[in-house]
Design a protein that fits this description.
The complex is a heterodimer of chains A (279) and B (362). Chain A is an alpha/beta fold and 279 residues long. Chain A has ten helices and eleven strands. Chain B contains 16 helices and no strands. Chain B is globular, with a radius of gyration of 25 Å. The chains are: A alpha/beta (279), B mainly alpha (362).
Amino acid sequence: MTEPLLSVRDLSVTFDTRRGPFHAVRAISFDVGRERVGIVGESGSGKSMTGRAILSLIRPPGRVEASRLTFDGTDLRNLPERQMRRVRGRRISMVMQDPRYSLNPVMTVGRQIAEALRVHGRPPRDEIRRRSLDMLTEVQIRDPERVLAAYPHELSGGMGQRVMIAMMTVTEPELLIADEPTSALDVTVQLEVLRILDDLVRRRGMGLIFISHDLRLVSTFCDRVLVMYRGRIVEEIEAQQLAEAQHPYTQGLLNCLPRIGGGQGDLPTLQRQDAWSHA
Amino acid sequence: MTPADIEDPRGSGRARFGSSGLPHVVKRVGGFAFSLVVTLFGLLLVTFLIARVVPLDPVLAVVGDRATQAQYEAAREAMGLDRPLAVQFVDYVGDVVTGDLGHSNLTSRPVVEDIRRTFPATLELATIATIIGVMLGIPAGVIGAVNQGRWPDHVIRVVGLLGYSMPVFWLGLVALLIFYGQLGWTAGPGRLDVTEQFIYELEVTRVTGSVIIDSALSDAWDVFRNALAHVVLPAGVLGYFSMAYISRMTRSFMLEQLGQEYVIAARVKGVPEWRVVWVHALGNAMVPLITVIALSYAGLLEGSVLTETVFAWPGLGLYITQALFAADFNAVLGGTLVIGAMFIVMNLLSDILYTLVDPRAR
């Protein structure tokens, strides 16, 4: 395997609170190439913090430490803010959970997409417009002219998330972090949005980090899965081999999924052990 | 009710899809005009009733305490105060609608004329003070929020707290003592010095009623400079209060906005931090701030009574105060009515501006 796109070693995210430090992420290591990597875990397992730490979006009182955090050969640790901004949006981007909160309510969709293009080297107006329209068409929005002039509250959830995807990928980043991109959507539109995301990642050959609490979704959508528990990666496994997962926590997660045609008995409760977070 | 009468929420949403603000503003103004009339009527009722409840005798104020009972009754009849309250009220409303606020005993001029003379002075003072409050208060609040818990935040908070806790008349007197009395940097009380007042009366055409604007329009630059020197202190004192309030509100609105997801999304895009703060977060914080600014402006129009007294500023506040001491009812009621109407207008204005800033309110 060639040099991975993103290489993470011993990444920790710590929040200094009044009751002592809280370890959100504890010394995790992983690589991401031009592939689709899923990160699964319960709420609070540190999966979102991992995504934000890569983009150095953790603000005080949070602290990020790592023995290695490189993207395409560039050390992202202690990168000056000005250079970090050139990486953000341009080379690594992130799709967030709920378009109702992650789009600015007082700015039109057009201005928000244009802004993503404009902060990275001011292209001329007509080029911005053309690229915005193309991008909206690419995420299968039928009436891109109208959506461009719309405000976020005028869009449905599914449309809003497609706009979010368009806004975050219009700059053609090499790595996309998708942080629970479908969790806030109706089940019916989840699949649609996933398909659009999948298409985009395949066609562009982007690397993808797909963060979700939904193990089944991640296993069908990704090549490789990292299972996180209390800030640690407890298991790393190829998506196809998920059924043969070794770690009791992963097995527990799998056993909790109801199966069509399965038994009528109670689903087992997820077992958690403190020891796993010290491994 | 037929199903067609029930508005389809999706249908109306589509109709507003991507619309600009202006047509809705027009429609709103129509709606507000109605509520304006209703509120004004309520205001009239309140001012009218106040006049009948206050333990001051307007008849006595006219005839003096040496008048005979017959003279007193005659005056009372002449003023129409012997009629039933309802009749008096209808009469009062009719007068106000036709622009007649009665005669002032104090100045022996129609109250409307007095207000026309004094109100621009108050408006000028409050406007400059609000501009100062907004120009300083919003940046101060934003800087405080961005540096939450660090020294710039503390400095801004202490400065604001001082503005809150010092009585305006005391601050005004101290400011006069230092900047006018000791340092001589500014002019003293009043709107103009005697010489400039003379030039103003003779050479400056009244267009807006604001000495500053009118003198500039008439090329009377000596008067203009003198007027500025006079307005600096009272406007500064009032502006300080306005700043203290606006910065505190801005800070809390900004803290709320900076915690929102769209702020993180903007950072993800690579938007520089100044733009994240001043465009994204402040753009959203402006929505509630507009109401705060409008009400603080209206508050300055009303609350400048003490400032106008300390600085001998010939505005509406000073007029009402003097009228009150002289039991000059028509003047007090007229002034109250104007201030109440200003509150209503400011509310209306903030609602209109609100829809311009917030697309969700359209």
